[in-house]
Write a structure and sequence with these properties.
Layout: H1 7-28, H2 30-35, H3 38-41, H4 45-56, H5 59-76, H6 78-87, H7 89-108, H8 118-145, E1 149-151, E2 157-159, H9 172-196, H10 200-229, E3 233-236, E4 243-246, H11 249-256, H12 258-280, H13 286-306, H14 325-328, H15 332-342, H16 345-359, H17 366-371
Helix pairs in contact: 1-5, 1-13, 1-15, 5-6, 7-8, 8-9, 9-10, 9-13, 12-13
Length: about 375
């Protein structure tokens, strides 16, 4: 089956899988976004406990997806993994540390004998929510803006900045997407709270906070997209293998891949519709529309970054060192074996969906807190 596919077809197949995982990860960032809103939405101990337990039931999905995303990237495109993690390691270390303190916080916040107090771990959750979402957006933006590395003929990497990835924070275009992802995660967190918590006072605060987060997200995201459509992009000449700068490259990618364009436009509509019904229709189903739109938007951006003869990891130091999916991928044999393993993905997705529905079958309320029947984080 898969062994009959060409190497290029397998590379494209695995870039699609990476794009799916990236979209799922950003959707699941509602956990991180919700963590930054605990004190804005919850005004007393019981309310904050309700919010944290709503997120605590889902944080492992985000963590697992992050690990799967990283593992799949490493196995399918190892040259990207070695270049980015080997060069921009401070940016990745800060991001990974933020996720480590998240896991610790959920496990120890309400544990008996906690000498640091619940608030210490709540601050850790805020740090994870802020740093995790913002840095992820900055790193993804570098797929379009480029990084300071070069590769030798033997693919030995040299990183040309002493800040080892933190220099990405000096690029305004990167910051724009980082801020957009931060506010998107907060918007998704609010919509998730609305869907999973039963409390009138919390619901009023959620709808108020939606204005403060959905509007900045739209402003920064549209700024990033408009900027992206009119900037030069790193294009590949398929005949010579040469990387060159092309005007409006990413806009052309959307136009030349109409299916991706349709998916992106559908993403925008879904995101707006989910926010609209939450604000004006008093619906609690906004998370499914805005979440689906967020997934499709990220999925589309990954395809724009990697398909249509585009360098998905550009070098601003040596243009010819820029990585394409053809240059960075594993061998035909490795991708073939991995592709058979990927057939398990639908079963995993079905399990996640079943587990999600079982956990969220009943909304969290103050009555549940007082009953003591459930595990509390």
């Amino acid at each position: 089956m898969f062994e009959a596919l060409s190497h290029l077809a397998l590379q494209q197949y695995w870039w699609i899988i990476i794009s799916v995982l990236g979209g799922a990860l950003v959707f699941l960032m509602f956990v991180q976004g919700g963590q930054t809103l605990i004190y804005q939405v919850g005004k007393d101990k019981d309310e904050r406990t309700m919010l944290i337990n709503a997120l605590g039931r889902k944080w492992e999905f985000t963590f697992t997806t992050l690990v799967t995303f990283g593992g799949a990237f490493f196995a399918s495109f190892p040259l990207f993994y070695s270049t980015s993690f080997g060069g921009a390691y401070w940016a990745w270390m800060v991001l990974l540390f933020a996720f480590i303190i998240q896991a610790v916080s959920y496990e120890f916040r309400s544990r008996p004998g906690n000498v640091f107090g619940a608030r210490t771990y709540e601050r850790f959750l805020f740090i994870n929510g802020l740093v995790g979402t913002f840095l992820l957006g900055v790193v993804v933006a570098s797929f379009f803006t480029g990084s300071q590395f070069s590769l030798s003929d033997m693919n030995e990497m040299s990183w040309h900045s002493p800040f080892r990835g933190l220099e990405l924070l000096l690029n305004v275009h990167n910051l724009t997407l980082g801020i957009a992802v931060f506010f998107l995660a907060r918007t998704l967190g609010l919509l998730y709270f609305l869907n999973s918590i039963e409390d009138e006072n919390i619901e009023k605060r959620i709808r108020k906070q939606l204005w403060y987060n959905a509007v900045p997200f739209l402003v920064f995201f549209l700024t990033f997209i408009i900027w992206l459509m009119f900037r030069e992009g790193y294009a590949l000449n398929p005949e010579t293998g040469e990387i060159f700068m092309q005007d409006n490259k990413y806009f052309l990618n959307l136009i030349q891949m109409p299916v991706v364009l349709i998916l992106f436009l559908a993403a925008v509509v879904l995101v707006l519709y989910g926010v609209f019904i939450s604000l004006f229709k008093k619906s609690s189903a906004g998370i499914w529309f805005t979440g689906s739109g967020s997934f499709l938007a990220v999925f589309s951006l990954f395809l724009v970054a990697g398909f249509n003869n585009t360098a998905f990891y550009p070098s601003t130091i040596d243009m010819q060192s820029s990585l394409t999916i053809m240059k960075a991928s594993s061998s035909h044999f490795t991708l073939t074996v991995m592709s058979y393993v990927s057939l398990m993905v639908p079963f995993v997705a079905a399990y996640i969906w079943f587990t999600w529905r079982a956990i969220n079958k009943k909304k969290i309320s103050k009555d549940e807190l007082s009953s003591g029947e459930s595990h509390f984080y």
